């Protein structure tokens, strides 16, 4: 059986070249995780006898390996074009709230992520996760794509310094005249949008690579100072050690992280209440983040059925469950499906072969971990802006004349970017839908499961806010 037949290229209307390009696009868009995840987790993970840089590289290796495991499940079991990696946000919760804030040992925090992963595997196997996701109200399902689109736009424009913080208005327009990053990013974005509008294949990849190279050329030519358009550490390594020296310096032995995880399992009973709270938070946020991402990206790919459901959704859900479990064992936080997968979908990726390409590229990046850090984040975030614009088309599927649809969809779309959380956006839509339907005298249209789901969110936020207040007081 050939590759095309195994992955169903004809069934999904794709071909090898398209899938290869889509996989490369997704990888470039999410490759920043190889650097950002260890940068966050190394703030909390300290190992006796190892320097901070060595711990950073251990976590980078763990990040890559956990991503590869999850992506292989996605490619061969789910046959979907989605990339997975340790999730942003959850890694910050792991490092800054759980370990540094609550004082939970990082070893125990890894044990909590492991328990979450095992629970996910069990719930996915019996179909419980699919059942809950299919309870999402229709307007919420159809609004997720547009909500993620605005979320991506906001994140991308911030990283490109086109949108910056402001004391009076919270955010405002960045100054292109004084920001080299904003100027180069806008030039790269303009190039990408023009190429995309003209139907040039690989336009997103071309935009990312061209912008990154331009940043390095301007730096090496002395037009801008080192560390402005290029990552500071990468520039120092290139100029001091050369490419060979950079690659030879990688700390591939991550067994101390595995030893820490094993120690953490033995410490669970020391403070079981805090452990349960941590597991619950990891579980709840990851559950709905993953659900929202899968639905939103699948909407753009045309995978959803008439009710807004993703057929056989338990298969891609199993990928993040397995990835999370394995990731915790080797030293990283929760693995989840990445919204950057939408970049590959936009390039035409429709099968698990796209995911396989992403996984292979992640595996190959093990050989050049320091070089991956050389790709400036503002260059990769160009992809998010382009795809964010494209994903706004989802608003056309919403019945804005129906108050229940308008309110729940509107809240889903706006709360996501304003709170930088897909899960919070889903929660807003899910909690508002039954209330509005009941106020319209249409409570009979709301299922018992949807009421239970809405109440569950209310309970979750009440417990979370109470716990957070306690943490701050402590």
Automatic annotation (TrEMBL):
Pfam families: Xan_ur_permease. The chain crosses the membrane at residues 20-40, 55-77, 108-128, 140-157, 177-197, 204-225, 273-297, 317-339, 351-371, 378-396, 416-436, 448-473. Its main location: membrane. Keywords: Cell membrane, Membrane, Transmembrane, Transmembrane helix, Transport. It is found in: Cell membrane. Belongs to the nucleobase:cation symporter-2 (NCS2) (TC 2.A.40) family. Azg-like subfamily. It comes from the Archaea. It comes from Halosolutus amylolyticus. One of its GO terms (biological process) is purine nucleobase transmembrane transport. GO terms for cellular component: plasma membrane. This is NCS2 family permease. It is a multi-pass membrane protein.
């Amino acid at each position: 059986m050939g590759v095309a037949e195994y992955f169903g290229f004809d069934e999904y209307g794709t071909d090898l070249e398209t899938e290869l390009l889509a996989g490369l696009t997704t990888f470039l868009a999410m490759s920043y995780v190889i650097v950002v995840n260890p940068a966050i987790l190394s703030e909390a993970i300290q190992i006796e006898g190892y320097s901070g840089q060595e711990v950073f590289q251990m976590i980078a290796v763990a990040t890559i390996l956990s991503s590869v495991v999850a992506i292989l499940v996605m490619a061969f079991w789910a046959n979907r074009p989605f990339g997975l990696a340790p999730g942003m946000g959850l890694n910050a919760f792991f490092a800054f709230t759980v370990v540094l804030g609550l004082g939970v040992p990082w070893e125990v925090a890894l044990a909590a992520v492991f328990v979450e992963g095992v629970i996910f595997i069990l719930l996915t196997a019996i179909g419980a996760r699919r059942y809950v996701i299919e309870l999402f109200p229709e307007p919420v399902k159809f609004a997720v794509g547009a909500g993620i689109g605005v979320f991506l736009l906001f994140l991308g424009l911030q990283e490109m310094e086109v949108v910056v913080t402001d004391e009076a208005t919270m955010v405002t327009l960045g100054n292109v005249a004084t920001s080299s990053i904003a100027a180069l990013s806008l030039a790269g974005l303009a190039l990408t949008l023009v190429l995309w509008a003209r139907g040039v294949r690989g336009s997103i990849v071309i935009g990312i690579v061209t912008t990154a190279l331009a940043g390095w050329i301007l730096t090496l030519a002395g037009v801008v100072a080192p560390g402005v358009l290029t990552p500071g550490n990468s520039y120092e390594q290139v100029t001091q050690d050369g490419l060979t020296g950079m690659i030879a310096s990688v700390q591939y032995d991550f067994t101390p992280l595995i030893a820490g995880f094993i120690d953490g399992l033995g410490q669970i009973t020391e403070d079981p209440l805090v452990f349960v709270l941590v597991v619950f938070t990891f579980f709840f946020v990851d559950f709905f983040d993953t659900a929202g991402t899968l639905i939103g990206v699948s909407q753009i790919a045309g995978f959803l059925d008439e009710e807004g459901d993703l057929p056989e959704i338990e298969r891609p859900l199993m990928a993040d469950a397995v990835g999370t479990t394995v990731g915790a064992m080797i030293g990283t936080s929760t693995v989840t499906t990445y919204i950057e997968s939408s970049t590959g979908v936009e390039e035409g990726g429709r099968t698990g072969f796209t995911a396989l390409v992403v996984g292979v590229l992640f595996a190959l990046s093990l050989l050049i971990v320091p070089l991956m850090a050389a790709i400036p984040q503002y260059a990769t975030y160009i992809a998010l802006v382009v795809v964010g614009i494209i994903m706004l088309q989802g608003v056309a599927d919403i019945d804005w004349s129906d108050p229940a649809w308008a309110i729940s969809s509107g809240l889903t779309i706006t709360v996501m970017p304003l709170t930088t959380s897909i899960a919070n956006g889903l929660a807003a839509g899910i909690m508002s839908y039954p209330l509005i339907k009941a106020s319209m005298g249409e409570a009979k249209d709301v299922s018992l499961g949807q009421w239970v789901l809405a109440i569950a969110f209310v309970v979750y936020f009440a417990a979370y806010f109470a716990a957070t207040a306690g943490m701050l007081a402590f």
